[in-house]
Amino acid sequence: MVDVIIAGGGPTGLMLASELRLHSVQVVVLEKEAEPSGHARALGLHVRSIEVMDQRGLLERFLALGKKYEVGGFFAGINKPWPGRLDTAHGYVLGIPQNLTERLLTEHAIEVGTDIRRGCELTGLSQDEHGVTAALADGSQLRARYLVGCDGGRSTVRRLLGIGFPGEPARAEWLLAEVEVAAPPETLKAVAAEVRAHVRFGAAPHAEGVYRFVVDAQDVAEERTVPPTLEELKQRLWALAGTDFGVHSPRWLTRFSDAIRLAERYRAGRVLLAGDSAHIHPPMGGQGLNLGIQDAFNLGWKLAAEVSGWAPEGLLGSYQAERHPVAADVLDNTRAQAVLLSPEPGPQAVRRLMSELMDFEEVNRHLIEKITAIGVRYDFGNEQPLVGRRLRDVGLKRGRLYGLMHGGRGLLLDRTGRLSVAGWADRVDYVVDSSEELDVPAVLLRPDGHVHGSVMISRICSASCLAGSARPPAEFTGVVGSGVKLVAVRCRNHVIRRRRLLGIRVTAPRAAPIRAPQKAPSPPVSRTSADPGRGATEDTYSTFGVWALTVSPTRIGRGAWIFPLPPGALLLLTYAM
C-alpha cells in the first residue's frame, strides 16, 4: 500500500505530488496519457502562483523559460495600466505556456521522488476505513491510504464518487487552434485589432511559424470531446474576420465553453478532489491553471500531516472550508467578465461604466488582486489584519522570507528572539531575523505561506502588579494563533477574557529562586508545547526562556486565577483574539 494515489498528471497533480514528497509521503501519480501533449491551454502564471514557485525554490527555472509582463486587461479584457503598490515582491504576470509549466513541474516532482506512471488510466475505485483501492484500465489494482482526483473537468474520480457538480451548462463555445498561417504578420495584426472590437476573436504568435487562434464557434457542440476540424476553423475565420489567413498544418485543435460548475464537496471519505475536477469555468482572466496549483499548495501539507499522524482534528477538512469559497469567487468573477464581454448594448453599457470605475486605482487594484489571487484571505476566526492572508516575500537582514520556505515546513519568524517552537520543532522552523517590511514583532506561517498567527501585545504582569500596584506593566509581544482552549486570566490590574491562551511563561532574575518546571495543580490553561490547531493537552507551564520557575495559581472565580510571584519575577501571558 502506498500513502497517496493522485489521478491526473497535469499541473495540479504534479504540484500536489511534490508538496507531499517534501514531507516524505509515498506518492504515485496515474496519468492516462502515455506522453505529454505538448499543447498549451493556459499561457501564464499569475502573481500568487509565481509566489508559490518562489516559496519552493522553483521560480528561477520558470523565469528562464517565461517572460514577465506588467500589463492590464486581465479583467474582461478592459485595458488598464498594471496597478502600483501591489502587496507582492512579484508584481507581474509570467507568460509561460502550459506545456512548459508541466515540464518543469514534472522535473521537480521526479527530483523529489514522485512515482509517475504514464499510460495508466483509473477506471474504478472503492474505499473502506483503512484505504482506497484504485482499479486501472489494464485490469490491475493499486491500494493507497488516500486518493486525490486531479483528473480534469470530466473527472472520472468525481463521477465514481457520485459528487454533484452543479452549475450552468455551456451556452457559448470557442475554438482554440495552433496552426501555421500564410498571411503576413502585419495582416494578422491589423485584422485582429479591427475585429476584436466587435466579436470575441484572438490571434497571437505562439511558436516559430505558428499562430494561436481563439474564435467563437457557431454553436455548442453536442459532443464536446470531439475536436473541431481545420475546415470548421476556416469557416469561422471567414465569417468573423473576412479571411482565413491561409491557415494550414494544424498542430492542435480543441474547443472550450463557458460552462461553470463547482463540486458540492471536495472530499468523500479518503478521496479528495482538486483543480478542474472540483471546478470549471471560462478562461476569462487566465485563472484556471493557477487555481488548481493553489488548491494543491493548500492541500499538500494538510494531507501530509494526516498521513504522518500529526494533523489536528479538522485540519484536512479545512481544505474544503478554505478552497471552496475561493473557487466560488473565481466562478463569480468569470461570470461577471463573461457578461462584460457580451456584444449586446446593455452589457456594453455596463462595460463602459466598469472601465470608468477602473480608472480609480483602488478599484483597479482590487480587481487585479482578485484575478491574481493575492487578495485571498482564509477565515481563521481572527480579526487581526495579517491572520489568514499569505505573506509576501519580505526582505530580511540575512536574505528573503521565501528563501526560508523551500522545504515546505511551517515557519516562525521572530524579530524579538524571545519566542520558541518547543514541542513542534519537527514541523516548524524557527528563524530570528529582522525586516523593515514587517510592522509586527513575529509571524507564524503555515507551510503554504498563509499567516496562522501574527503578533499581538500580551501583558507582562509583574509581582508588584499582582500585589496591587497601580504602576502600569510593560508590554510583551507574543505569537498568536487559533484553535486552542478559551480561558480568562486575571491579575489585580488586568483581566484577559475571551482569549485563546497559547502559553504562559514565568521568568525570574538570577536572584530569584529557580527550579525545574513540574506539574502544577491548576489550571489546565497552558502547555509546554504550543501546537497550532490543537487544544491544551498538559497542565504545565510553558518554559520557553532560560530562567523559569513553577508557580501554583489560586482560583478566584470561573475562568480566572491569581498567579503569586516572587519579587522581580514576570508572568508573560501569550494569547490570541
Features:
single chain, 577 residues, alpha+beta, FAD/NAD(P)-binding domain, Alpha-Beta Plaits, Glutaredoxin, 4 domains, eight-stranded mixed β-sheet, five-stranded antiparallel β-sheet, 31 strands, disordered C terminus
Explain the overall architecture.
With 577 residues, the protein is of the alpha+beta class. The chain folds into 4 domains: 280 residues, 3-Layer(bba) Sandwich (FAD/NAD(P)-binding domain); 85 residues, Alpha-Beta Plaits; 59 residues, 3-Layer(aba) Sandwich (Glutaredoxin); 122 residues, no CATH class. The chain is 25% helix and 27% strand. It is built from 12 helices and 31 strands. Strands 1, 2, 6, 7, 8, 9, 16 and 17 form an 8-stranded mixed β-sheet that branches. Strands 26-25-31-28-27 form a 5-stranded antiparallel β-sheet. It has a 4-stranded antiparallel β-sheet with strand order 12-13-11-14. Helix 1 runs parallel beside helix 4 and helix 1 runs parallel beside helix 8. The radius of gyration is 28 Å and the shape is globular.
